[in-house]
Predict the 3D structure of the following.
Amino acid sequence: MTQALTSAPLLTTERLVLRGPERGDLPAFTRFITSHPAMVAQGETGSESDAWFGFIAGIGHWQWHGFGFFILTRHDSNAPLGRVGLLHHSAWPQTELAWHLFEGAEGHGYATEAAIAVRRWAYEQHGIAQLVSYIDHTNTASQNVARRLGATTDGTRAVHEPDAEVWQHMSEAA
């Protein structure tokens, strides 16, 4: 049995299992950070060291806030498909609902399905009724996910990330 690295609960959807990160997820995350075509296209790739620090920071997020990124897998496999979760870094004005899929997992609706579950969990377990997503203004794939989630933007840019637009999610209470 794999030792838990976080306090993340297990969430399930029709097709997916959302679980906390495990040591064995680091190679897939490293490939995402260092060579995923979307990261290359946006000029946001990082080194293996950057991936390690990002992975560890994600674990720390769970310890600090009680929420963070869930790893997505299918019910029939423990292979990671991507990450969806909540972030609230120290200088950010609001909690972000964020997602990214690993290569080969795009185009199946996984990000939307998982984000709906995480958004519901955020409201029910943490009382977070207002979430945002900070999405690069050129990232049409993530913008499409945001639209499917019912989020909207007026083009306002995030203070901490000038290339990202702020997408507002409707309150789960609404």
Summary: The chain is about 35% helix and 20% strand.
